[in-house]
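Re: beginner question about structure tokens

> Can someone show what the tokenized structure looks like for a real chain? I only ever see the sequence side.

Sure, here's an example I had lying around. Input first:
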Amino acid sequence: MTTIKCMRLSFVVPAYNEEAYLPACLDSILEQTRSLPAGSTEIIVVNNASTDRTREVALSYPGVILVDEHRKGLPFARQAGFAASSGTLVAHVDSDSRLTPGWVAQVLATFDEAAAKLNHATNKRPLVALSGPVLYYDLTPRQRLLVHVFYLTAWTTYAINRYILRVGSMVQGGNFVTSRDALAQIGGFNTDITFYGEDTDIARRLNAVGEVRFTFDLKMFSSARRLKNEGMLTMAARYSINYLWTTFFKRPFTNTHIDIREEIQTES
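And the corresponding structure tokens:
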């Protein structure tokens, strides 16, 4: 059995009107971190201009750090959470997501292994970001298969860009971990980006200072509400064009997006 060296890990969870999804996200993080040594992890919820009970939900969890970011936008929220964090590693998890079993252990073990190899190889680049795909828990098996095909296509494009064309890399927004030092070195998140392309932009810039690794082994559960609302083909096309545009032109093609939120049912 491999012994995992525990390092300090900060979770940053951006949340705009997420009272319906936030509890499951926080519960999944706490389930995997409560057995770790005290002081080795922290959870930061960024209340991003919410108008529902998101703030109250975050405050109901003892030990969770609340940050209020009144400038609405995912990059603003990620940057505010990063500024408030103290971890050697910073995990960026969306509030409608849930950790898959063993997610934390895998992250810590992967970064420990990369650091050990770096100590024995002078020409190896440090691991600065780790990411993987999301599993949509509210899709049908057929729909999940279509998403998997999309990921395979995306990975092929990423591999060509990274290993042949030597441009950029890839992370999945809401399921990626960054080295604190590397993220600070590139100046954090680009707050000029509103939504699409923010993950590609961070992968592209981090790739200049170290290894950005995408692996199918690091999965995250997430809601498919956006795919179901806007359509799978539309979303596949939209994410693809913005990935390519941000990789090659350093800015997203799409500058607007629709807020997809659940209607909260109240008892009459």
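Each token stands for a local structural state, so reading them left to right follows the chain. Confidence is low (pLDDT under 50) at residues 264-268.
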